[in-house]
Amino acid sequence: MGKSNTPLLRVDTLFSNVTDATGLPQNVASIIVGLIFAILIIVALYWFFGTEIGSACRATGNNEAMVRALGVDTKVTKMIALTLSNGLVGLSGGLICESQGYADIGMGTGAIVIGLAAIVIGEVLGRLTPGKLRSFGSRLTAAVVGSVVYFLIRAIVLQLGMDANDMKLISAVIVALALCIPVVWEKYQLRRAYARSAKAAPATPAANSEGGR
To answer: What's the rounded Cα separation, in Å, for the pair 110 and 200?
Structure first.
């Protein structure tokens, strides 16, 4: 950047071009552009991870020893995954800078917590749904939905009057709750299943009388 803060107010951006072309407000144009990029990225990732090298990258994350035993160079798959992830980080950072109209050297602070919270919330929503998210495409979509839900929670908390300087605490609480909710929900479902099975089980037959022994 060359300096700590770079304004983009007088620079033509993707969002300003969409606003000028459609006449829509800035916030609506930001939502539309964000949805388009999210859909394109989900489709592209779904296609890539369905290929042979993409499947190898996914398998490396699940069981590196097994993938190495199958003759796959895990160093290459790790490098591909890191390159892909950092490319997506750069793309999202560029979109955020153009949307907000400036670039600040501290804008990425806490982004890891936000990403973790988005993934965890998406997984929780997937577990709580009746059908549950099992396919890879559904999990990609759940990550995007989780990020939207995360920022909605933050906006609601700020509207309730909490100090904006406590956002790190809010993020930590959201992640903790998202990690605890599925565990509590699974235990609740397990107890309900035990209670139903106990009610459905037949009564224990009475002990035989002495004459029948």
So the answer is: 51
